[in-house]
Amino acid sequence: MNNISAGTCEPPLIESYEALLLRGSESASPRTSFDGEVAEQCELPLIDLADLRRGGEARRACAGAMARAASEWGFFQVANHGISARAFAEMRREQKLLFGAPFEAKVSSGVLNNSYRWGNPTATSVKQFLWSEAFHVSLAKIPHETCSYGYGYGDSSSLGVAVDKLAAAMSALARTLAGVLAENLGYTGNGFPVNCDDKTCFLRLNRYPPCPFAPETFGLMPHTDSDFLTVLHQDHIGGLHLMKDSEWVAVAPNPDVLVVNIGDLFQAWSNDTYKSVEHKVIANKKRERYSIAYFLCPSYDSPIGSCKKPSLYKDFTFGEFREQVQDDVKRFGYKVGLPRFLL
C-alpha cells in the first residue's frame, strides 16, 4: 500500500478492541455477532434499468419489480444503471490512495473537511466497536483546491474531481429510482423527494481492514439508514448482511451492479409500504473490503409526510428525526429510529 507499512496507515483498531475486552464487560471470547452462525448467502432481486428507458409496458414492469423488491426486501440490485465503470475505477483509485495515507494524516490533515471516522472510539463494548474506517463527506464541502493529504500520497484536487463526478452520477440515479418508487404509490409532483441538496446528501467512502477477530466482528453494526434512499457500490469481497424473514442473510457481492436500499424516511413516507431493513457489515479475516455509498436526504426542515392517510406516523421533519436519532444514540448507545414517531 504505497510502500508504507500497515502500522503507519492503519487506525489503532486492535489496541482499542483489546482494551474493550480487558474492561471485563465481555467474555474472554471476542465474538460479537448475534449467534456466531454463518449466514446463508442470497442474490438480491435484480432490476434491469434499461427497461425504464424503453418506456411503455417495459417501464411499467420494471417499476413494478422495483416496488415489489422495496416492499418485500427493502433492498434490490440495479444493472445498466448508466454510471460508467471508469467513474468507479477513478474513485476507487483515489479511495485507496486516501486510506493508504498515514493514520496521523487522515486524522489531522483536514482532508474532505475533517470527515474521517474510524472504529467508534466512544464504544463501551466490543459489540459497539466498528472494524472500519470511513470518510463521510457532505457534498457541499468537497475540496477543489490542490493540497497534499498524505505526505505525497495524493492531493485533494484529484480526489475532489473524482468525488464530484461520481456523486453527481449517483445522485441522479438515486433521484430517478426514488421518483419511480414514489410514482408507483401515486405521487404526481415534480421531483421526489423534494428539497434534496448538497447540504444534506452524503457520499461515504468505506474501508474494512482485515480483522483477526473475524467473522464475529462488525465492520458496521446492525442499523437502518436514516435517509430516503441509499445507493451502494461494493467490491468483490463480501460482508454485507441484511435481515430477511427474521434471519440474517449475506448478500452475494457483485461489483458490476449497484445495491439500492430503502431508508427510514421512505418507509415513513410510503406508510410502511416500502421497508427500511436492518443491515450490517461483517469484517473479513484476511482481505480488506472497499465500498462507496450515496445517501439521498432532504433538507433538515423538510416535512416527511405520508403518501396516504391515515398516516402511521406523526408529522416530523428530517431535522427532528436526525436530532432524535442522535439523542438516542447518545443516551442508549443505539438508534431507535422510526418507532419513536409512530402515532
- Strand coverage percent: 15-25%
Radius of gyration in whole Å, from Cα?
20 Å
CATH class: Mainly Beta
The CATH architecture category equals Sandwich
- Counting helices, strands and paired strands, the structural category is alpha+beta
The count of domains is: 1
Poorly predicted parts: 1-6, 25-36
Number of helices: 10
Main β sheet profile: 8 strands, mixed
Care to count the β-strands?
Answer: 13
Secondary-structure element order, N to C: HHEEHHEHHHEEHEEEEEEHEEH
Read across the widest sheet, the strand sequence of neighbours is 2-3-11-8-13-6-5-4
- Identify the CATH homologous superfamily: B-lactam Antibiotic, Isopenicillin N Synthase, Chain
Describe the protein.
The chain is globular. The strands form 2 sheets. Strands 2-3-11-8-13-6-5-4 form an 8-stranded mixed β-sheet. It has a 5-stranded mixed β-sheet with strand order 1-10-9-12-7, with no helix packed on it. With 343 residues, the chain is α+β, with helices and mostly antiparallel strands. Helix 5 crosses helix 8. The longest helix has 29 residues, at 156-184. Strand 9 and strand 10 (247-251) form a beta hairpin. The chain has helices spanning 6-9, 13-22, 50-54, 56-72, 85-100, 103-108, 111-114, 156-184, 264-269, 318-332, and strands at 40-42, 46-48, 75-79, 116-118, 133-138, 202-208, 218-223, 229-234, 240-244, 247-251, 258-262, 279-282, 289-296. 33% of the residues lie in helices and 19% in strands. The protein starts with 5 loop residues before the first helix and ends in an 11-residue tail after the last helix. The model is unreliable at 1-6 and 25-36 (pLDDT under 50). The chain has one domain (6-303): Jelly Rolls (Sandwich), CATH 2.60.120.330. It has 10 helices and 13 strands.
